[in-house]
Specification:
By secondary structure, the protein is α+β, with helices and mostly antiparallel strands. The protein has helices at about 5-20, 35-45, 55-60, 105-115, 120-135, 150-155, 175-190, and strands spanning about 60-65, 70-80, 85-95, 100-105, 120, 140-150, 165-170. The relative contact order is 0.14.
Length: about 190
């Protein structure tokens, strides 16, 4: 992936300063290209700012009278915690009940990717995925469940290696407990 050279250069200078402040010698062999690599990595990890997720959904929006639940589960993602700029990663499960329109299944996964490739908190990411699908497709309901491990909890602070955080948000038909239960049972099943 290519990035604007001016952005890469500006970030490189900042990372050189960070390394120096940490007590490193930015002139030593192992660190010579580190500022450039980190600059490009950060631009990749935050590439979601440059993409409109609504346009992605609309690019494959089709009229269809299907009115049952559509689920895309086990969508792998990784993101960067905005509090510590450390990764969190896991799976997102997304369901919607069409109301005259469907979208390409891969577009649901792309929406997850777009929001996860921003500095985030899991709670906001869950809400943004739900709102984007609700506002763009106007379905009868949307539900999103995100399960993640946070490196900020594993590497620093409480250092809890096996803690998993689960967030959920829903609209419309998913306000009914029976519909939510059906979704949860389907994402927990093997197929």
């Amino acid at each position: 992936m290519s990035w604007p050279e001016d952005k890469v250069q500006k970030l490189m200078e900042h990372y050189k300063d960070v390394l120096t402040l940490l007590g490193e010698d930015v002139g030593r062999e192992g660190l010579l290209k580190t500022p450039e690599r980190v600059a490009k990595a950060m631009l990749t990890l935050t590439r979601g700012y440059a993409v409109d997720p609504r346009e992605v959904l609309n690019s494959a929006k089709f009229q269809e009278e299907y009115k049952q639940m559509v689920i895309v589960k086990d969508i792998d993602f990784f993101s960067m915690c905005e509090h510590h700029m450390l990764p969190f990663y896991g799976k997102a499960h997304v369901a919607y009940i069409p109301n005259g329109y469907i979208t390409g299944l891969s577009k649901i996964a792309r929406v997850v990717d777009i929001f996860s490739h921003r500095l985030q908190v899991q709670e906001r990411m869950t809400l943004q995925i739900k709102e984007c699908i609700q506002e763009t497709l106007n379905p009868l309901g949307v539900m999103v469940v995100v399960e993640a491990k946070h490196m900020c909890m594993q590497m620093r602070g409480v250092e809890k290696q096996n803690a998993i955080t689960t967030t959920s948000d829903f609209t419309g038909a998913f306000n009914q407990a029976k519909t939510r239960e059906e979704f949860m049972n389907l994402i927990r099943s093997g197929y």
